[in-house]
Fold each of these.
Amino acid sequence: MSNDSGDEQKVNTICKLLIREYGDIIVERSLDPIEELVFAILSQNTADINSERAFKSLQSAYATWEEVLAAPHDELAQVIRSSGPFRVKGERIQSALTEIKKRVGSLDLSVLQDMETSEAMDWLTSLHGVGPKTAAIVLLFCFEKPVLPVDTHVWRVSKRLGIVPDNSTRVKAQDLLQQIVPLTCLYSMNHNLVKHGREVCIARKPLCEDCFLNRHCDYYQTLH
Ligand code: SF4
């Protein structure tokens, strides 16, 4: 990695190239904060199609979050069965809802709106089963806080590009990226790095020779 200003310049360039290739994604989300939190928990370590199916099933089975909270564990687990480790996720959802209700008196996350970003992040990550990526999804998409959710694709591609150190943990990478990615790029960067990681900078065999970022990539430089 280069120095700070060099990193910022490099991130800027990469952000622009990603936008040129994949577009400037402005994500319009229709989920409210509790829905976004539950959807993010269902999305942990599973393919989008499975978490989307589980979320629809949850919405069909229960009319309110109070009903989800009161549901028997086994019943809820069966409803979200398509989401991968469904028992763990059911337990996380109920535990998060229980704690939110205990803290604010209702199933409502609007308390996060007026918090500083770091305070809101601490508040959410102190809920059982809510890690930095899940919290960042809620804060970025529902409250427009300047955070960048880092999933396995964003983490891998960022390390290969050299915009975070190769030995960064995912949590550290999220922390560093939030400091150097321009505010105007947060939405597109999240979406576009995931897309690039799935289609080009593939985990096992990145398609470096065809990659439009290779001039700016540390990993690519090591190959030549
Ligand atoms: S050059 Fe290779 S390692 Fe670098 S971003 Fe592109 S695909 Fe990934």
Amino acid sequence: MPSVFEETRLASMHLKNRVVRSATNEAKAEKNGAVTGLLLEYLVDLVRGQVGLLISGHAYVAEEGQAGRRQLGIYDNSLLPGLQHLTGVVHAEGGVIVAQLAHAGRWGIGTGKHAARGPMASGEGVAGRRVLAMTRADINAVVSAFAHAARRARTAGFDGVQIHSAHGYLLSQFLSPWFNQREDGYGGSLENRARLLLEVYDAVRGSVGADYPVLVKINAEDFVEGGLSAADSVQVCQMLAERGVDAIEMSGGTFNTGGLSFARTGDRLSAEAEGYYCGHARRYKEEIKVPLILVGGFLRLSTIQEVLQTGLADYVALSRPLICEPHLVKRWAEGDHVRAACVSCNQCFATNLSKEGLFCKVTQRRQKS
Ligand SMILES: Cc1cc2nc3c(=O)[nH]c(=O)nc-3n(C[C@H](O)[C@H](O)[C@H](O)COP(=O)(O)O)c2cc1C
């Protein structure tokens, strides 16, 4: 029976347990996206906390796809030395690290030089910015940007890549009829809406080779009327499975989903409320053989064990609990099974504008008092 603290092999990666640090934007990079000492320190601490697989914060593959200030970048070869140093340090500590590759699309912050681009033109980009509808040439450029970024990740020594197709960023925008009402070959039917993701997947696979782990993070559904449905999501996972994706991470929701966004808040202290995509995972497991990483609201070791043992998922991923307690997995492994201290308040989102980038406000307050 699968258990949390057993070694596994995921494609070519040897993992010391089944807990994954879900991609979490650290906002600790330089202004141009380059790796900093601050980011290195943060990631090393997570590795020392014994997380089995570390997925980087979403790294932007093209400048117009930047989602936030001081986000990690992977859009240019000039960033390679820093990325190489990062993987070297993580490996020296015994960690395994995957680079999450992302493009914000409509939610690009724009840098003056680069207007945000998405499936549709809109006057409602970040802070009311104008968003341009992607042309065929823009789409080709995005596909090639993902492929180049994946190659860079491999060259830099990352153990794999994860294509970010969740949470209402570019690839998720294309999948979603809520964002995407295009009338060309990239909009309309599910086959058309999935076209960009599949082109990106194929290009990434082509640039890194068959032996290199390629993962995809996708919404179980958008939880918004007219968004990506649960049935469509399973079909897209099936399309990726047929192409040879190595693992799928299931999340859900977008920034427009209110209370059902990917990082749910509120009364989530009861064990029943944990793992809010478990129902979707059940359906995935009935139809798809590719390993599933399940994220979303896990706080207790017992819940994680149950999810693994009942075969709902092969790995469980955590984001906020590890912002709060980077050594949570180590604590559990050493026998202290008290639930994660994270109270799911989401105050961590706002910290990305602070000098040090991401941190847990609740822990900081506790430490000060
Ligand atoms: C501060 C913060 C930053 C995040 N950054 C990313 C990101 O870069 N890429 C991503 O796919 N998800 C990101 N997420 C979402 C998490 O990976 C995860 O899907 C979500 O928080 C639910 O997991 P949790 O309940 O364990 O926090 C972020 C979440 C938080 C709280």
